[in-house]
Design a protein that fits this description.
Chain lengths: 650, 198
């Protein structure tokens, strides 16, 4: 047995799977790990830009009657801050982890559609540039990220600001959908033998649920934005009240997308800390299936609560009551998760490294944000809080205190795996404390100014309402956050360039990604792993404690068939036993391709030239031609080398 | 091609087929949103024409029938390629595409008629906006399907591109085509048959 494995390895190592180098290799890469890195670096760049926008907002609001920026600039800043953080920061940072980690966690060599994956990234990058292009003409979107009709109609928004919003979101939506199809199929179809659905790591589960949410929620945004585009470009009347159009239709379409979007932002972070907490508590996740089903429950309920964003538009008592009850119900599965995380830590050997600090911070901060959320789930309370800074405080506690805390925890947790280097623990902790303290200084006072009646989205205010001090404190908090971000960047830079080499399994992890070298080779796994438990690497390392699935016996039935094969193989003592029959398989990796990039450029040009005058329409026509050429070349290009040639080569 | 080398999938279902099902689920929400938009908008126009004044249900029934028959042709084309009968495949895939073209031609005639005789345009009133947008997006789906079908038809003349082993490529195109047909049944019912019910 041992000889066979050794022979198999030697043969694999002889094959030329060296990392390609140079700019061209990045432009044509279809390796999920490189695409993950591209997503991550791009997302951090936009996170930085969104942070700058937030700082400018806070400087303007630091004192009453400030004129640091104009009212119009302020509108552009808060609109772009939200759009950037949501679509260009948090979502792609989640995507970075989907890309890098998911194939490793399920024991696959790549995603189901590697070229589609590259396409998603390039469309995201180009869409992000299109959305931001307005800055160069002083016409960035300025109607809020929700861009309510009929403020966005040609009559009230005659500039091009809204056009960048419309066209940018169209392109970004296509990127998200393409990625969601890919990860949905990858998780369902590319699992290693023995990895039944109820053995998937929780991060993988949350990614699957997030993908389903994107698949079902984004079309509503696409339709809404398309109707708005038609109103603006082709003089239709969808949202024009004078012609009978309904501005409320926009609100419904937007929030049918917009509320599931909230869970698209938070569930990946929930998944990440469900990996971090067990690892640093030295205990398997408490109540695995409850956490999984709670995630699914949040997703299902998430489609039935959109109108709680619209309690004050006058829907009437019955819809308000229904959406209010549904919204309060969401607290139940969320509470289940919180208790399971606490249960995981309870009685564990807690190791407070940086990732663990971020994970624990998420639990605490999300509870605060969740509680204020339950408050305005009640329509009478909401009518007091609607459009006040109280809502701003709430949404930042769930999105910053929740999503972003979790994502930064993920960055530290997987940094050694992704880069092969160890980050500096002291700097990591410094970053964490600056971020946690800065975050609370910035956002906690907003609860008070909100209750005191300060409306959202106002560019300045008069003195004498009792808002001055808290606004100044909020602004000071932003600078603490900024220092924290600088520490983070310094840490990343120092660690990548000068950091110690990381071990393959620095945290004594439980999931399959830690069985690979750091960083993982191009092909991820020499041999397809065979999984017999929910915590496969712990089962292998600690067979006397986690050797088999007995701990989870009641869920093991669906995996029984796979286990049967594994148990009768000599290697079954190890949960991550290498498949004795599979190791003779050759490793086939798909070829690099530039067609995803070409197709993405074509698609973006189609939208980029949609507006303005006939000279710009030429851009659309060039885009259509590029898109068609890209799609056909992509379809006709072989994804891998011809199998016949491959066979002869051996 | 990829499917020969791909490792067997966890579900046994080909990944591309699963991706197509996911896409169709997404497209359901797309058309669902558009139909909801139509229902909200159709009777709110402040100027005519109004839905019950313009539709010619017998005419549209014929074009709906044509589109439904194209689904039958699609099934026969798939059966042809699955049985390695290239002649049968080519005849029926071309028939499917042509029936799709006939449907599109019917839609172009209908749109033109509405414009010429009823003064209905995309911007004239809310009914026009919502009608042309909903049926126009469906027409666009049909047009993309027709291009896809004829691409398969032409590809079958190049050796090795469309074969019995690769019949899944045809099956996936078929899934899309049947879906577009089903959407038309819903649109035909909601927009045309129930036009007087508003």
């Amino acid at each position: 047995m041992a000889t066979q494995v050794a022979v198999g390895q030697a043969r694999v190592e002889a094959e030329p799977f060296a990392q390609p180098r140079g700019l061209w290799s990045w432009l044509t890469t279809i390796d999920h790990k490189r695409i993950g890195i591209l997503y991550g670096v791009t997302a951090l760049l936009f996170f930085f830009i969104g942070g700058i926008e937030a700082m400018l907002i806070r400087v303007q609001l630091a004192a009453p009657n400030n004129d640091f920026v104009s009212a119009d600039q302020f509108n552009q800043l808060f609109t772009m801050h939200a759009l950037t953080m949501i679509f260009l920061g948090v979502m792609p940072l989640s995507s970075a982890f989907f890309n890098f980690i998911i194939p490793l966690q399920i024991g696959a060599r790549d995603v189901a559609f590697p070229r589609l994956n590259a396409f998603s990234y390039w469309v995201f990058l180009l869409g992000a540039l299109l959305l931001n292009a307005g800055w160069f003409f002083g016409e960035a979107p300025n109607t809020g990220w929700f861009s309510y009709a009929n403020l966005t109609s040609p009559a009230y928004s005659p500039g091009h600001n809204v056009d960048y919003f419309v066209l940018g979101l169209q392109v970004l939506g296509i990127s998200s959908l393409a990625a969601a199809f890919n990860f949905l199929v990858t998780i369902i179809n590319m699992r290693a033998p023995g990895m039944s659905m109820m053995r998937l790591p929780v991060f993988t589960w949350m990614t699957l649920i997030t993908s389903i949410l994107i698949v079902l929620a984004f079309p509503a945004l696409t339709v809404g934005v398309t109707l708005l585009m038609f109103d603006r470009f082709f003089s239709t009347n969808f949202f024009i009240p004078a012609a009978g159009g309904s501005p409320l239709l926009w609100q419904h379409l937007f929030w049918v997308f917009g509320h599931p979007e909230v869970y698209i932002l938070i569930l990946p972070a929930f998944g990440i800390i469900s990996e971090i907490l067990p690892t640093f508590s030295r205990k398997p996740l408490f109540g695995y299936s409850a956490v999984v089903f709670a995630g699914a429950g949040i997703a299902v309920l998430g489609f039935g609560v959109w109108a709680h964003h619209m309690f004050t538009v006058g829907m009437g008592p019955v819809p308000n009551a229904v959406f209010s009850i549904a919204t309060m119900l969401i607290a139940l599965p969320t509470g289940v998760k919180i208790f399971n995380w606490i249960g995981t830590m309870y009685g564990g050997h807690l190791d407070f490294r940086t990732p663990m600090l971020f994970a624990v911070a998420l639990v605490g901060m999300f509870i605060i944000g969740g509680l204020s959320g339950v408050m305005h789930a009640s329509p009478p309370v909401d009518s007091q809080q609607q459009d006040s800074y109280f809502i701003v405080a709430h949404l930042h506690y769930v999105l910053f205190g929740g999503s972003i805390m979790g994502l930064f925890g993920g960055i530290y947790y997987w940094f050694p795996k992704i880069t092969g280097k160890m980050y500096k623990e002291a700097l990591g902790k410094l970053h964490f404390w600056l971020m946690l303290i800065g975050f609370n200084i910035t956002f906690f006072p907003m609860h008070w100014v909100g209750i005191e009646g300060m409306p959202r989205r106002i560019y300045t205010y008069n003195s004498g309402y009792g808002w001055d001090l808290w606004n100044l404190i909020s602004t000071i908090g932003v600078f603490v956050l900024a220092i924290g971000f600088v520490v983070f960047i310094v840490n990343m830079w120092l660690s990548v360039t000068l950091g110690e080499k990381a071990a393959d399994d620095p945290w004594d992890g439980a999931t399959l990604e830690w069985t690979t070298p750091s960083p993982p080779p191009l092909y991820n796994f020499k041999h397809t792993p065979r999984v017999t438990s929910r915590i496969p690497f712990w089962s292998q390392k600690y067979p006397e404690v986690y050797g088999d699935d007995d701990h989870f016996h009641h869920h093991a039935t669906d995996a029984a068939a796979d286990d049967h094969a594994a148990e009768h193989a000599p290697a079954s003592a190890h949960a991550v036993a290498h498949d004795e029959h599979a190791h003779e398989e050759a490793i086939h990796l798909p070829n690099p391709s530039y067609w995803p990039l070409v197709t993405a450029i074509g698609l973006t040009l189609v939208f980029a030239g949609f507006r303005w005058n006939y000279a710009y329409h030429a851009i659309t026509y060039i885009g259509v031609v590029t898109l068609v050429v890209g799609i056909y070349s992509w379809a006709l290009e072989p994804a891998m080398d011809d199998p016949a040639e491959h066979a002869e080569a051996h | 091609m990829a499917q020969h080398l791909a490792h067997p999938t966890s579900t046994g279902l080909d990944s591309r087929k699963l991706a197509m099902w996911a896409f169709l689920a997404s497209d359901c929400m797309f058309f669902g949103s558009l139909i909801a938009m139509y229902e909200v908008s159709k009777d709110r126009s402040v100027v005519g024409p109004f839905p019950h004044e313009v539709f010619n249900i017998p005419y549209t029934s014929v074009s709906a029938f044509v589109l439904l028959m194209s689904s039958l042709a699609m099934v026969l084309a798939l059966s042809g390629i699955q049985n390695a009968n290239m002649r049968r495949f080519r005849i029926w895939i071309a028939t499917t595409g042509l029936l799709g073209l006939v449907f599109l031609a019917g839609q172009v005639y209908e749109f033109t008629f509405f414009w010429r005789h009823e003064h209905m345009t995309l911007s004239h009133n809310l009914f026009g906006s919502s009608f042309f947008t909903l049926t126009g997006f469906h027409g666009t789906h049909v047009a993309i399907g027709v291009v896809w079908l004829f691409s398969l038809f032409l590809a079958s003349f190049k050796k090795g591109l469309v074969t019995q082993e690769k019949s899944l490529n045809v099956e996936i195109a078929g899934l899309y085509w049947h879906f577009v047909d089903i959407v038309w049944i819903v649109i035909f019912t909601v927009v045309y048959l129930l036009s007087g019910a508003g």
